[in-house]
Amino acid sequence: MAAKPPKRRFSPLYVIVLVVLAASIALGTYGFRYAAQIAEKSEQSLVESNRLLGKQTIDRIENAIIDSDRSLFELVDLDHPADFAKNWNYIVKVSPAIESAFLLDENLALLPNGYVTKQKADSFRTMFMQKMLPTLRDDLLALPVEQHKHLHKEYGGRDYLLSFIKKTSNEHDYYVVLKVSLEYVQNTLFPEVLNPLWGKVPFCVRDEHDHIRYGEAVGQPGRFLYEEHFPTTLYLWRLQIAPPDAARLATEERVRRRSEFLLITMMLATILAGIAFLFYATWKEQRANQLKSDFISNVSHELKTPLSLIRMFGELLAMGKLKSPEKGKEYADIITREAERLSRLIDNVLDFARMERGPVAYEFLPGRLDEVVERSLDVYRHRLEREGFRLSTKIDSDLPETMLDENAMTLLLLNLLENAVKYGRGEIAVYLTRQGNRLRLVVGDQGPGIPAEEHRRIFERFYRTRQARGTNVRGSGIGLSLVKHIAEAHGGTVTVDSEPGHGAAFIVDIPLVEPKTEAA
Ligand code: ADP
């Protein structure tokens, strides 16, 4: 039967994280939008005030042109079209806004005497008749009677403004076309209308080529700029108005946007970092819990096996049904060995529990590490031989005294030996040498070795290598964390030198501390 996939546990943490994430995204979006809206509103209000001013200004300029055209159109006497030149010569001369005037019949032919101008060297008539009239033709013919229109166009690199109207008299249509003087517009009309704005707001009138026709460049104020074409008369040209301190406003706006963006981003980043940390802490907690439960089951298992062995061989001895006295000795040996293992395990667990509770009080006294190592090996040698190991040692005997906790160092060495026995085979090597102002203790074995990626982790509490977990070698995962704790308490380090398949060497380096110096 196929194994059911493990049920996924529903964790309220994920829901909380999702809610917080959604809320912070909503908050961030709202923040960005709100900041953008505020900026837009303040910008709109600035542009709005200029829009009003701009519209009024444009209206005044256009009205001035239209009014002047209209008042001149009123003066055309169509009952006597032949007298146009006679009457209009004077009118055109005194009117500052008009340069030339044409009177055309219903077929758009120029009437005799239908052209007057104040220009001396007159080339405009030919240009109008040959170039402008053909393009104006349709517009003029479609014009309702008394309707007044304008043409603002570039001819031969110059801008022209024409104002025209269709009139009727004695059942004949006539067209009156005025050429409005752009010099007058620029030199008289613009100053009249625009000069009151000087000093209040930066403004200018730009033509279709972006050349300034009046005023001064308003800079590059970006979105604060008000810009509008003249709708009816000078429609190729446009008026630009900027707020008085547009450049400052633009810079302020940029700075504000940047800091708002930064603030909101920082807020989001903090929330995200918080969530990431929460996940990390939860993951760590879960891992620690997992390790702890592994530890409990390992320890219980380790306790159970020697106890059942002790009980079984104890009962056999108690019954006295022994085939030979040698058997009796063998059983007693087994009981002793398992009892040793039990007491070592319990020592380890107790020490470990002490270490977990808080800072462990080590008792540092002057002592010789070589003596400690020799004593421990004396105790252990018997066991090694019994388990079929060869022990090779190289212990410098002229080592100076140093400050050490003898019990702790014994525990350290026993743990390393215990592991060498558990995981190794054949030969176990124990070296103690002096390396400058340090003592180096090495315990090497010919076991399966440890992969490089697990070298650091084996010193973590409860950690067991993948390989060890896969075999039935028992262990609790606390031995090496005790070793590390003890080595570091002596100001030293512990490292492992190992490759899979080539055994492992645990190297403990302890600094030499002169007892006198310590006492001083
Ligand atoms: P354990 O009680 O599991 O031996 P330790 O803390 O002493 O716990 O060791 C941690 C892990 O390091 C062991 O589970 C084992 O996987 C690995 N290890 C320790 N010593 C050796 C060794 N001499 N050879 C191979 N692996 C070792």
Would you mind describing this structure in some detail?
- This protein has 520 residues and is of the alpha+beta class.
- Helices cover 52% and strands 20% of the residues.
- It has eleven helices and 16 strands.
- The chain has a five-stranded antiparallel β-sheet, sandwiched between helices. A five-stranded mixed β-sheet has the order 11-13-14-16-15. A four-stranded antiparallel β-sheet has the order 7-6-9-8.
- The protein binds adenosine-5'-diphosphate (ADP).
- The site of adenosine-5'-diphosphate has 22 residues, from helix 8 and helix 10.
Itemize the secondary structure elements and their pairings.
Elements (H helix, E strand, L loop, with lengths): L11 H63 L9 H11 L3 E7 L5 E8 L6 H18 L6 E8 L2 E12 L2 E9 L1 H13 L8 E4 L5 E4 L10 E4 L8 E4 L4 H74 L5 H33 L7 E3 L1 H18 L3 E6 L6 E3 L1 H18 L3 E9 L2 E8 L20 H5 L8 H11 L3 E6 L5 E8 L3 H5 L1
Parallel strand pairs: 11-13
Antiparallel strand pairs: 1-2, 1-5, 3-4, 4-5, 6-7, 6-9, 8-9, 10-12, 13-14, 14-16, 15-16
Helix pairs in contact: 1-4, 1-5, 5-6, 6-10, 7-8, 8-10
The structure holds adenosine-5'-diphosphate.
Adenosine-5'-diphosphate binds next to helix 8 and helix 10.
